[in-house]
Amino acid sequence: MSQICVTFRSITAAQNAARALEQAGHSRLGLRSIFGVNGEQNEESIKQWQKAISAACAACETLQRQKMGALIVFERDTKLGEIAKSGTLVNADPTRELIGNVFFNKAPLHDGAMIIRDGRLHQNPVRELEKYRAGELTFEAQASGDFKELPGVSGRVFDMTVEFDTKVCRNFELRVAANERFYTSLTYDGAKQTFTTDRTYSGSTRDLLAVRTMSLAGHEGRVKLRVLMDRYCIEVFANDGEKVMSSLIYTPLGAEKILFCSDGAFEAAFSQIKKP
Questions:
Q1: Which end of the chain is more exposed for a tag (fewer CB within 10 A), N or C?
Q2: Is the pLDDT score of 149 beyond 90?
């Protein structure tokens, strides 16, 4: 068998398949015989595969409760390069949240399939978003101690990329779904080399984890953040997918300002997404 495809058509099948897959992932014999992990691979590689399998199983359990389908391909001997080229490379650690958001039909990255290569999410076909971009705006913005808007940059369905030199801009904050009362904060802290999503003021009355932080170092002295938003879903790809963070907010749709604050210059490209 060259590849392993995981598909679910019923709740019972999903539960049984997930249990079998997870058991194989926790067994070194299962990793060798099913996923092609051999004894020559180091401990880090084995742990990466186990992490990927656990994340896929956890995500599928969530999806089957929501009655959503999923197609997950674990690449083995035959490389799926041509198929991967049809989409956007992600190269991120698989997590329950990231995998779930790919198959959540209201998320900006929604699609029906994904590829996991070497224990990492290798590809997610979202290139079709290019067709729905409307009028890209580009900016070279200067440092601002106060939050400011950029002309034409607002809304709740968009694709935006922000990039800056970490020696020039060490602290950057972006507030989305904002108005006088609500906002969700996306912050880069150069001193700590971290990226944080804070939903404290997003308007949710639910008991949820409001603040999430991940490590994020500059790549050749630069940080690149791609933010995809679709009304209530936010996806952040850092450094071309080196790190990924997904969030769900409950802010009223009337809050659609996008605000910027930084201690140095940054570049931004912004496009509205016009869905068919």
A1: C
A2: yes
